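Q: I have 106 residues here and want to know how they pack in 3D. Can you give me a structure?
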Amino acid sequence: IRLSLVGSEMCIRDRATGAYQLIYADVSAVELRPLIDAAWPLLAPGGTLVIAGSLLDGTVADPTRRDRDTEAAREADAYVDTLALEDAALARLPLDGGLTLLTKRR
């Protein structure tokens, strides 16, 4: 999958809804939410979205951090939590900058 940011929206070329088993993303914090919105429909049931650097080396959990990247990462992290409540399995791994695994159930 080729991802690119156009304006405030993530564009995906060669899109095939529900066809992908694995999508790996390594994007800036401000691109996390648009990426999740664009990639989620592309996953087949049982498919996993892997988001590298999603925890910003732990700064997401630091309440004193109020910069743009940290706030964007927090917003994306909260959104991932809502997806996990609806139809996904969620795992966060403390590897490198933080790795989020979101697996679509249905």
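Q: Anything worth noting?
A: The chain has a mean pLDDT of 87. The CA atoms of residues 20 and 91 lie 19 Å apart.
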